[in-house]
C-alpha cells in the first residue's frame, strides 16, 4: 500500500491539471473553490471563481459584502444558501480569528456551511493536517481498487472507508487527497469505462482484475423526481419588467424571479386570470418552455410574453408584490436562480441584444 500511495502521488504531481486554486492554494482560495465545486463541474466553476475573487479578493471583503451583490456573483451556481454561509463564515473569521483562517480541522468544521469534506480538504491542503477527504470521486476509486460492494450511500460505509484511509494517509495528506480526487475525475470516471491503461493503481486494482468496475460503486436506486407545473408571466410595462421576491423560507428563499403561477395555464386562461386581477393587456404571446431539475423535483415551466398598459400598483393575486425593473437592472443588480435564467435570456434575445 505504501508503494502504491507513493506511485499515486508521483502520478498526481506529473499529471495534475493547472486549476487556479491549485496555483495559489491559500485557505481562502481553497475554501471558495471547494464550496463552488459542490455538485458543479470544474469547467463551469473556473469563470465564477475568477469573477468572485476579483470582486471579493479577501475574507474581509466577503464578510462585508452586500447580500444582493453576493448572490449576483453566485448567480447560476445554485444552492444559494452556500453563498450566504460563506459570508456568515467570513464574518466569524474576521471577528473571532482577526481575518486569519483557522488552521485545524476541528476549528474549520465549526464554520457555517463547512462539513467534513470541505474541512478536511482545507486542513490537509493548506495546513498539512492528516485528514482524509471523502467525496464521490474518492469513494468510486476506493470501491473499485478494493472491489468493495458496500453501499456508499450508507453513512456507515463512508465512515468505514474514511477510517481505513486514515490508517494509510501519508505525510503529504493534501497531495494524497487531491490525487485520489483527480484520479476519479479524469481516469476512474463514472458512467463510462474507466481509463485503466492510464491509472497509476492499475496493478493493484481488484475491480480491474475481476472486470467488475462498471458495477461499482454500489448506490441506492434513484428515486423518481416529483414533477411540478408552473406558468411564468413575463410582464412588460413600457421598458420595464415585473419581478417578485420569493419568501424567506423554503426552496430558493429570498431570490428574485418572474411572477409565476402554480399549474399549466393556456393562453386563454392567462388572459382571463390577468383580466380578473385588474390588468389591462396590450399584447399576449406564448414564449418558451423549460424544465428545471432540482435534487428531488422537476419544474415544468411554460411562459407567456405579456405587454400591459396597466397593472394593479404592487399586487397580483397569487403572485404577490412585485417591482418594475429595466432589463439592464435585471441583468446587473438582481440575482436570479438558474430556473429563471432561460426566461431572462429569452427577454434579452427578444430585445435583439438592446438593453434599455
Task: Write up what this structure looks like.
The termini are far apart. Strands 1, 2, 3, 4, 5, 6 and 7 form a seven-stranded mixed sheet that branches. A hairpin with a 2-residue loop joins strand 1 (226-237) and strand 2 (240-245). The chain has helices at residues 2-15, 20-23, 27-37, 42-55, 59-64, 67-74, 81-97, 105-108, 116-127, 136-145, 155-166, 173-186, 206-210, 267-276, 327-332, 341-350; strands at 226-237, 240-245, 256-257, 260-262, 280-293, 297-310, 323-326. 44% of the residues lie in helices and 15% in strands. It has 356 residues and is of the alpha+beta class. It has 16 helices and seven strands.
In short:
With 356 residues, the protein is α+β, with helices and mostly antiparallel strands.
Alpha-beta classification: alpha+beta
Largest sheet, described in full? 7 strands, mixed
Tell me the span between the first and last alpha carbons.
64 Å
- Distinct helical segment count: 16
Strand content: 15-25%
Measured as a percent range, the helix fraction is 40-55%
Order of helices and strands: HHHHHHHHHHHHHEEEEHEEEHH
Low-confidence stretches: none
The backbone outline, from C-alpha atoms, is globular
Number of β-strand runs:
7
**What is the average per-residue confidence, as pLDDT, rounded to a whole number?**
91
**Whole-angstrom Rg:** 24 Å
Quickly list its features.
alpha+beta; 7 strands; 356 residues; seven-stranded mixed beta sheet
How are the secondary structure elements laid out?
Layout: H1 2-15, H2 20-23, H3 27-37, H4 42-55, H5 59-64, H6 67-74, H7 81-97, H8 105-108, H9 116-127, H10 136-145, H11 155-166, H12 173-186, H13 206-210, E1 226-237, E2 240-245, E3 256-257, E4 260-262, H14 267-276, E5 280-293, E6 297-310, E7 323-326, H15 327-332, H16 341-350
Parallel strand pairs: 1-6
Antiparallel strand pairs: 1-2, 1-4, 2-3, 2-7, 5-6
Helix pairs in contact: 1-12, 3-4, 3-9, 9-12, 10-12
Amino acid at each position: 500500500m505504501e508503494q502504491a500511495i507513493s506511485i499515486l502521488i508521483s502520478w498526481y504531481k506529473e499529471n495534475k491539471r493547472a486549476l487556479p486554486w491549485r496555483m495559489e492554494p491559500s485557505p481562502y482560495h481553497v475554501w471558495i473553490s471547494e464550496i463552488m465545486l459542490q455538485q458543479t463541474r470544474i469547467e463551469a466553476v473556473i469563470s465564477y471563481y475568477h469573477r468572485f475573487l476579483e470582486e471579493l479578493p479577501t475574507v474581509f471583503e466577503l464578510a462585508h459584502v452586500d447580500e444582493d451583490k453576493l448572490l449576483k456573483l453566485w448567480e447560476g451556481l445554485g444552492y444559494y444558501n452556500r453563498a450566504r454561509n460563506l459570508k456568515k463564515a467570513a464574518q466569524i473569521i474576521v471577528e473571532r480569528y482577526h481575518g486569519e483562517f483557522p488552521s485545524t480541522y476541528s476549528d474549520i468544521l465549526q464554520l457555517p456551511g463547512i462539513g467534513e469534506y470541505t474541512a478536511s480538504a482545507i486542513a490537509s491542503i493548506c495546513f498539512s493536517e492528516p485528514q482524509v477527504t471523502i467525496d464521490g470521486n474518492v469513494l468510486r476509486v476506493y470501491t473499485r481498487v478494493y472491489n468493495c460492494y458496500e453501499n456508499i450511500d450508507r453513512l456507515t460505509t463512508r465512515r468505514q472507508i474514511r477510517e481505513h484511509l486514515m490508517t494509510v494517509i501519508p505525510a503529504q495528506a493534501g497531495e494524497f487527497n487531491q490525487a485520489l480526487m483527480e484520479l476519479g475525475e479524469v481516469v476512474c470516471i463514472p458512467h463510462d469505462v474507466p481509463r485503466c491503461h492510464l491509472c497509476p493503481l492499475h496493478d493493484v486494482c481488484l475491480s480491474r482484475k475481476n472486470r467488475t468496475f462498471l458495477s461499482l460503486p454500489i448506490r441506492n436506486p434513484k428515486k423518481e423526481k416529483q414533477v411540478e407545473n408552473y406558468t411564468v408571466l413575463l410582464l412588460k410595462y413600457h421598458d420595464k419588467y415585473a419581478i417578485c421576491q420569493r419568501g424567506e423560507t423554503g426552496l430558493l428563499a429570498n431570490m428574485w424571479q418572474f411572477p409565476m403561477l402554480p399549474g399549466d395555464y393556456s393562453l386563454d386562461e392567462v388572459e382571463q386570470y390577468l383580466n380578473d386581477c385588474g390588468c389591462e393587456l396590450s399584447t399576449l404571446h406564448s414564449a418558451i418552455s423549460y424544465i428545471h431539475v432540482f435534487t428531488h423535483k422537476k419544474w415544468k415551466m411554460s411562459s407567456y410574453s405579456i405587454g400591459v398598459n396597466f397593472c394593479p400598483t404592487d399586487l397580483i393575486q397569487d403572485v404577490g408584490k412585485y417591482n418594475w425593473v429595466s432589463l439592464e437592472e435585471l441583468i446587473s443588480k438582481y440575482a436570479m436562480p438558474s430556473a429563471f435564467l432561460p426566461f431572462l435570456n429569452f427577454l434579452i434575445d427578444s430585445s435583439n441584444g438592446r438593453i434599455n
